[in-house]
Amino acid sequence: MPNKSLAEAEYNQFRLFLEQHSGIVLGDNKQYLVRSRLAPLMGKYNLPSLSEVVKQSMKPTERQLRAEVIDAMTTNETLWFRDNYPFELLGTRLLPEYTRLGRPLKIWSAACSSGQEPYSLAMTILEYQQRRPGALPGSASILATDLSPSMLERCKRGEYDSLALGRGLSPERKRQFFEPTTGNSMQIKTNVKQLVNFRAHNLLESYTLLGRFDIIFCRNVLIYFSPEAKAKILRQFAAALNPKGILFLGASESISGLTDEFDMVRCNPGIYYQKRT
After folding, report:
1. Whole-structure pTM value
2. For 22-26, 66-70, 177-181, 270-274, which range has the lowest pLDDT when averaged over its residues?
3. Interhelix angle 8-22/63-74, nearest 10 degrees
């Protein structure tokens, strides 16, 4: 029977490896998470133990295994319209302001996971344009990035099963923005897909080639990074935002003590951060 145990020293070495290559910080005693995520790779690569999977993945020569290990450890499911208020703010307060830009609105969904966030943003934009015909004459574009190649492939397909569709999606939005496929799955409609471009990107790397943005969504992501990595990411977000650009973080995330490049804007409910001029 395959050995799924991981000694503490091996776990600590793997934690360091994962942080260096993805920025994600595993807490103490999270061996169970490593077991659940990496155990399937034992059979796939014909390795006798979880310890061997971890050991082999840290070898620079084992590039495919390394990529799959990082992919497995950084993969997360998410919800449609999570927390709701950021999408409400976008549809009722921010889009009317950005209508006056005279050019396409540019939004970045960073660490987009399984695609619900960028597609929720696209639906919010389409709903606003339905309410206000002729608004956003330049329309909008959404860049959605993630570290996980397997997640990005799922995102591009835009196909979700009944379990995923039940997480935060109203019947009206399901009817308007999805079409049935085989089985219990539904597919995102083309008009939603056309607003979103998916791309692989590591938040610890340079943002220069991504362009400049009016709004960045990076929600419930920074909690996985060390304080040093958080500060670096926030500095790079500020540099990637246009003047007075807006950053949305998760409800429990704070930039206090990490950067002085943003002002907090309270909206009741919710907050966002605006780049200082």
Report:
1. 0.84
2. 22-26
3. 90
